[in-house]
């Protein structure tokens, strides 16, 4: 039985494709690729069918992750049943997911940094403007935001892998 993980943001072109790409690479590096089904989706259909934002692709590539094969899709009610873990990037995503998937699957829902960032407190960068529990939306900002997103996601991915693999 595979463990299935769905990363969710608003557009599925910046944060959740980055999370999918980073998490998949780390899982494959550990030789655990066959044990996981990894996907991502957006709470909106704004960018359905599109490749990840070029700025996300470029920054991910610079840090060693290839997002180019991914295409945006909207979160479906059926994802609630399909996936074991549904991981939101921010609290707006978290509440939007609850309105799309049935109540009976809300226990599968996590907030990525809040639930998986190190338990001894999150160290923000000096220019950090977001709540420590959220991966900030980089879409309307500069390139620094995209780099920060990759770093936040890398850290939380290590913690998620520990949670899933260390019994
Ligand atoms: P994402 O970023 O949720 O990380 O994919 C966004 C992408 C597009 C929009 C907002 C956020 N948009 O409003 O089109």
Structural class, from helix and strand content? alpha/beta
Give the ligands present: 4-nitrophenyl phosphate
Strand order of the largest sheet: 2-1-3-4
Mean pLDDT: 91
Order of helices and strands: EHEHHEHEHH
How many runs of DSSP E, i.e. beta strands?
4
How much helicity do the residues have?
25-40%
Q: Biggest β-sheet, characterized?
A: 4 strands, parallel
List the helices and strands and how they pair.
Layout lengths: L2 E7 L5 H15 L6 E7 L11 H9 L16 H4 L2 E4 L2 H10 L8 E3 H5 L26 H23 L2
4-nitrophenyl phosphate binds next to loops.
Structure, described:
The protein has 167 residues and is an alpha/beta fold. 40% of the residues lie in helices and 13% in strands. Helix 1 links the parallel strand 1 and strand 2. Helix 2 packs across helix 6. The longest helix has 23 residues. The protein is globular, with a radius of gyration of 15 Å. The site of 4-nitrophenyl phosphate has 11 residues, from loops.
Keywords:
single chain; 167 residues; alpha/beta; four-stranded parallel sheet; 6 helices; 4 strands; 13% strand; globular; binds 4-nitrophenyl phosphate
Give a short summary of the structure.
The chain is an alpha/beta fold. The protein contains 6 helices and 4 strands.
